[in-house]
């Protein structure tokens, strides 16, 4: 029986990005079981808008909302491992997710067992130029854009650090009054401009913030 809440859309084209230690490859609803260890973890999902999924069916729905259509640019992150790459009998574990499913917003998560190794930073460094290449410039019309943005809770120190390390600049603050997981919270919007453009030139740095020293300090955790 098919669940009517699962959106059936054309699968995105397969794309692969290799970094020194990681393989990023197009993620699909069929990867749900491999993604479950990630999206059931409360400490990972705390920073998302919906919280952890409780079972595979919810997992499929979560995935179907993030992998729709040909324009989907969302990736499973795997560790590169020569043995696994040669032996394709069993799929390698997925250690994280990164990509754009609401362009120009970027999202990312790494399983806690693999956190603290620089994986999110390494994945984003490779992904950012690919996103700009994949999506046309705003002046080419259609769905084009000339910047990428990351929305991060002001208390999420690790995520803020990743955006700063990969060249994003704090631009403005947004209050999320009804976050389902964390309650009312302060979101910081970081942006990075397409090569050859500037945030100032694109009118994306509000004047008050352009003149300030940076984002507000996170509270001591
Ligand atoms: C945030 C997350 C993606 C980090 O992944 P990761 O692979 O461990 O990140 P990296 O190792 O590349 O970089 C983390 C950086 O943050 C720093 N950091 C870690 N905890 C921190 C904290 N509480 N405050 C400030 N910086 C912190 C690390 O020291 C590191 O910086 P450094 O290289 O300068 O030392 C991962 O913990 C995660 O999935 N969290 C839950 C989901 C999430 O928050 N997603 C982002 C939503 S906007």
From TrEMBL:
GO terms, molecular function: acyltransferase activity, transferring groups other than amino-acyl groups
Residue ranges of every copy of the N-acetyltransferase domain listed in the record: 22-195
Transmembrane recorded as keyword: no
Secretion signal span: none
Entry annotated with the keyword Transferase: yes
Stretches assigned to coiled coil: none
Gene3D superfamilies in UniProt: 3.40.630.30
Keywords of this entry: Acyltransferase, Transferase
Protein name: Acyl-CoA N-acyltransferase
Source species: Neohortaea acidophila
């Amino acid at each position: 029986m098919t669940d009517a809440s699962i959106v059936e859309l054309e699968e995105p084209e397969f794309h692969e990005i290799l970094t020194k230690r990681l393989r990023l490859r197009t993620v699909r609803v069929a990867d749900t079981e491999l993604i479950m260890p990630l999206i059931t973890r409360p400490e990972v999902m705390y920073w998302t808008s919906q919280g952890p999924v409780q079972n595979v069916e919810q997992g499929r729905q979560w995935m179907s909302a993030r992998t729709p259509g040909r324009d989907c640019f969302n990736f499973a992150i795997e560790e590169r491992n020569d043995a696994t790459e040669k032996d394709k009998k069993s799929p390698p574990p997925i250690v994280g997710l990164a990509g754009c499913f609401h362009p120009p917003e970027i999202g990312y998560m790494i399983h806690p067992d693999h956190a603290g190794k620089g994986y999110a930073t390494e994945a984003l460094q490779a992904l950012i130029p690919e996103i700009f290449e994949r999506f046309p410039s705003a002046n080419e019309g259609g769905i084009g854009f000339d910047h990428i943005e990351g929305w991060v809770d002001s208390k999420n120190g690790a995520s803020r650090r990743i955006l700063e390390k990969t060249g994003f600049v704090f631009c403005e603050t947004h209050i999320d009054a009804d976050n389902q997981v964390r309650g009312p919270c302060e979101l910081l919007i970081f942006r990075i401009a397409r090569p050859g453009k500037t945030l100032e030139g694109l009118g994306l740095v509000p004047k008050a913030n352009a003149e300030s020293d940076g984002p507000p300090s996170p509270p001591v955790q």
